[in-house]
Amino acid sequence: MAILNIVKFGDDLLRKRCRPIDEITPKIKTLIDDMIDTMRKADGCGLAAPQVGILRRLAVIEAEEGVVHVLINPEIVKREGEEEEVEGCLSNPGKWGYVKRPAKVTLRALDRDGVPYEIEAEGLLCRAICHECDHLDGKLYTDFQTKPYIPD
Ligand code: ZN
């Protein structure tokens, strides 16, 4: 287990399109564990591989404490509704903005053992899924931010 360095906004690595994972090797499993540790240490609810400098289609999400979702080669196959909420990113610490996202999505991905799964998500999990999937295509929440959020 290791805490990885998180790449910050302005770094070209965050603008690249990531490649799919075609085999879940022990190295990938270690990366997944390290990403979960790194996300928790940074007190975040999601982390995508490019944020730790790895340009592969992988993200981890913990929108609800203790419930970790591993997303390998994720695809959002259905989007419904719209919801504007405050969002931040571990690569842009101390800053937040309002972003419109679907209110509900259906996600298809592989889990850490390579087993396909499909989930429907709303609320924070839905938002985190959209945010992390964007990272895999080099998109950042500030690209869609309607206005910044300044905490009191
Ligand atoms: Zn992010």
Supply the key terms.
19% helix, 152 residues, 2 helices, five-stranded antiparallel sheet
Protein model, in words:
The structure is a single chain. With 152 residues, the protein is of the alpha+beta class. The chain has one domain: Peptide deformylase (Peptide Deformylase, Alpha-Beta Complex). The chain is 19% helix and 35% strand. It has 2 helices and 8 strands, in the order H-E-E-E-E-E-E-E-H-E. Strands 1-2-3-6-7 form a 5-stranded antiparallel β-sheet, with helices on both faces. A 3-stranded antiparallel β-sheet has the order 4-5-8. The chain is globular, with a radius of gyration of 14 Å. The relative contact order is 0.20. The mean pLDDT is 97. Zinc ion (ZN) binds next to helix 2.
Set out the fold topology:
Blueprint: H1 26-41, E1 46-48, E2 58-64, E3 67-80, E4 83-88, E5 96-101, E6 104-110, E7 116-122, H2 123-135, E8 147-149
Antiparallel strand pairs: 1-2, 2-3, 3-6, 4-5, 5-8, 6-7
Bound molecules: zinc ion (ZN).
